[in-house]
Amino acid sequence: MAQRNAVILVEGESDRAAVLTLAGRLGRDFDTENVEIIVMGGASPLADHLGRLLVDQRYDGLVAGVIDVGETGDLEKGLDRVGLSRDGFFTMDPDLEGEMIRAVGPGVMEAIFEEEGELRGFRTMQNQPHWRGKPIEEQMHRFLRVKSHRNIRYGTLLAEAVDIARIPKPLRDLIDYV
Asked: Mean pLDDT for each 10-residue chunk of the chain (178 residues)?
């Protein structure tokens, strides 16, 4: 296998899907550039992944990543454990879905739900007593996260829909960094 010039660590498959889609929209081809995206399955295993990368013979370059704001402690611990700085690691608030919902806006989100045949399901959730009266962005965030694998599909769909000028800063900074 070829040497990797850069490795991007992400928490989940939805993050990977969004980063790849956004990179492509920005004219980047991570395969050609030898950039590997590693899905960690959460932020807790960050130190283990970093440790493996530091001894991996396939890797000879930059390490970067993106994590949810709630995982900042795991990021700091992991970087400290392997002696790396935070350069190249970016934080999403609160997570990918929150960043993308703000970037595309509720109107586009509802249009995507409709295109995907899920607007009715979203409306049903909105009418549940617990969700009535809550901010629409909070409702949308929950809707994306409530059904297994929905957020992975929407990671790509939202990355395709977002205006290039409105790509969330942590994701744009990550892609620019590598």
From this structure: 80 96 98 94 80 70 92 89 89 97 98 98 97 97 90 95 98 97
Total-model pTM? 0.92
Q: What amino acid occupies position 174?
A: L
- C-alpha span between 87 and 131 (Å, rounded): 39
Nearest to 8 by CA among 156, 33, 27, 26: 33
Q: Domains along the chain?
A: 4-95+164-177 (3.40.50), 96-161 (no CATH)
What is the SS3 assignment for 14? helix
The 3-state secondary structure of 101-153, one letter per residue:
HHHHHHHHHHHHHHHCCCHHHHHHHHCCCCCCCCCHHHHHHHHHHHCCCHHHH
Residue-level pLDDT at 12: 93
CA atoms within 13 A on the CB side of 134: 16
Check residue 27 and give left, alpha or beta (phi > 0: left; psi -120 to 50: alpha).
left
